[in-house]
Design brief:
Oligomer: single chain
Number of helices: 9
Protein name: Glutamate ABC transporter substrate-binding protein
Distance between the termini: 83 Å
InterPro entries: Bact_solute-bind_prot3, SBP_3_CS, Solute-binding_3/MltF_N
Strand order of the largest sheet: 5-1-6-13-7
Keywords: Signal, Transport
Family: Belongs to the bacterial solute-binding protein 3 family.
Pfam families: SBP_bac_3 (PF00497)
Structural class: alpha/beta
Length: 282
């Protein structure tokens, strides 16, 4: 009788242990997405929270934009469903550190590929070729950078975009620095400034907002080449190769063009063709 009691107790302990193990597997949080596939884990992806059309956190907590769509597609190819993605705000100055600390697995945040950054991170892509451009009112006569002489040109404090236009094309332009692009766009709407400059993709995203639709246009200038890549931790070749393969598939199956049309179409954004993976346009 005593032997039967011990056996029953052992069985109960064994059942409890198996149950705990199963629960542990279900609640696994692979927060940096280090696994080769989603399974029961999650993947953290760095994006911008404040760029309409690219990476925007909506009032209801959801996320929208071209970078978000690209990141979601890539994550799917890596084995993660949308509900397994955790989007993390990744500000420009902290992108390299976020990857080095394993805060995120990949970053899709208007991350232009350049030689200095490539010393610290690896880049998949590029997945979009953007250009520095001007956003002006629909009826504006500004069509060339030189037309900005004597006009008020806005960009964000700390950005080199407006200074580059001033130095290279329009030395008599009146530079106005605001704290964010939202303020620049509001200034353009009110007439406080005559043009806003930064990447055309960013400008198109702002102009496509419902409150601005039909009010602005892109000048269509190509004042620089900005090759957007997906940042991957330096040396993580396995992830890099998988992300590149995902980007190639996104282009071939039409999902890339659909994402461009959905996010930039309302601003009349004339995008470049999808860039080839590994080809950087200087």
């Amino acid at each position: 009788m005593k032997l039967r009691k011990v056996t029953a107790a052992s069985a109960a302990v064994l059942a409890l242990a198996l149950s705990a193990t199963a629960c542990g597997g279900d609640s696994k949080d692979d927060s940096s997405g280090s696994g080769s596939s989603g399974g029961g884990g999650k993947i953290k992806i760095g994006i911008k929270y404040d760029q309409p059309g690219l990476g925007l956190k909506e009032p209801d907590g959801s996320f929208s934009g071209f970078d978000v769509d690209v990141a979601t597609y890539v994550a799917k190819q890596l084995g993660y469903e949308p509900n397994q993605i955790e989007f993390v705000e990744t500000k420009s100055a902290d992108r390299e550190n976020a990857l080095a600390r394993d805060d995120v697995k990949i970053i899709a945040a208007t991350y232009s590929i350049n030689d200095e950054r490539k010393k610290k991170v690896d880049f998949a892509g590029p997945y979009l070729l953007a250009h520095q451009d001007l956003l002006v009112k629909k009826d504006s006569k500004i069509s060339e950078a030189t037309d900005l002489n004597g006009e008020k040109l806005c960009s964000v404090t700390g950005s080199t975009s407006a200074q580059n236009v001033h130095d290279d094309f329009a030395p008599k332009a009146q530079l106005r620095e605001y704290s964010g692009y939202s303020e620049c766009i509001a200034g353009l709407q009110s007439g406080a400034v005559d043009a806003v400059t930064t990447d055309d993709s960013i400008l198109a995203g702002f102009a496509a907002q419902d409150k601005y639709k039909g009010q602005f246009k892109l000048a269509g200038l190509k004042l620089s080449n900005e090759n957007y890549g997906i940042g991957v931790k330096k040396g993580d070749t396995a992830t890099l190769n998988k992300v590149n393969a995902a980007l190639e598939k996104m282009v071939s199956d039409g999902s890339w063009q659909k994402a461009v049309d959905d996010n930039f179409g309302p601003a009349g954004y004339k995008n470049e063709p999808a860039p080839k993976v590994g080809v950087i346009v200087k």
